[in-house]
Design goal:
The protein has 7 helices and 10 strands. By secondary structure, it is α+β, with helices and mostly antiparallel strands.
Length: 231
């Protein structure tokens, strides 16, 4: 297998996921270099796709992967210490088993949060476009976990390191929006994002002096607007 590949896509995220899928690795096993973020062009003319180079980390190449198949005779190995965590882990395992995904699952609980991480070589289909499939599975997993808990719990589900990678991309986009807003003195409307991504932007920019954020629009086109704080 080649240890690096260059891919293009409509967005950096799309190109990165295509590269990861071709290499058969997760984001935490890769070094990701953004060659070009692409451009919209003017009135659609001169539009360029984003381009990334993804390279397998040396330690990932040397590692002897021990993938477990989520089938009838196999199960995820998790450290389920509460009924809610056990139910959440089992639900994720059943979903992935149903679509024939290979990988490993780990979980742990901290206060009112349950963290579930899935790693493997065929996780791309679980993520979906802009994480939509992952968000849907996360939503259902939260419902299942809370049915088995007297206190409110929140499940954080990550597949192939997507959440961490996406968070870095969203924070970078937020920082660029702030720079543009400060430079132009005008509101900057960011690209439509999922509720999870919008929360990342709001939280990241909450402490930035002179800047305020709010959301506008209707799902799935709801956007974060970055504005100057005139107070």
């Amino acid at each position: 297998m080649d240890n690096s590949v260059i891919k293009t896509g409509k967005t950096v995220e799309e190109a990165t996921l295509a590269a990861l899928e071709e290499l058969g690795i997760s984001a935490d096993m890769a070094d990701i270099e953004v060659i070009s973020e692409g451009s919209e062009g003017f009135l659609g003319v001169g539009k360029k796709d984003a381009e990334v180079k993804v390279t397998v980390k040396e330690e990932a190449e040397e590692a002897d992967e021990d993938d477990t198949y989520y089938g009838d005779d196999e199960s995820f190995e998790g450290d389920a210490v509460t009924e809610a965590e056990d139910a959440a882990v089992n639900f994720v395992a059943e979903v992935l088993s149903g679509i024939g995904i290979h990988g490993n699952l780990d979980s742990y609980r901290e206060d009112d949060a349950i963290y579930i991480s899935v790693t493997g070589s065929e996780c791309g289909s679980v993520i979906g476009r802009h994480g939509e499939t992952l968000d849907a599975i996360s939503y259902m997993t939260n419902l299942i976990a809370n049915k088995h808990s007297e206190e409110r719990v929140h499940v954080h589900l990550d597949v192939g390191g997507y959440r961490k990678h996406r968070e870095r991309i969203v924070i970078s986009l937020a920082d660029k929006a702030v720079a543009k807003c400060l430079r132009s003195g005008r509101d900057v409307v960011m690209e439509p994002m999922s509720p999870a991504d919008r929360r990342i932007v709001h939280f990241h920019l909450a402490e930035v002096q002179g800047i305020t954020t709010h959301s506008e629009g209707v799902e799935p086109k709801r956007c974060v607007v970055v504005s100057l704080d005139n107070k």
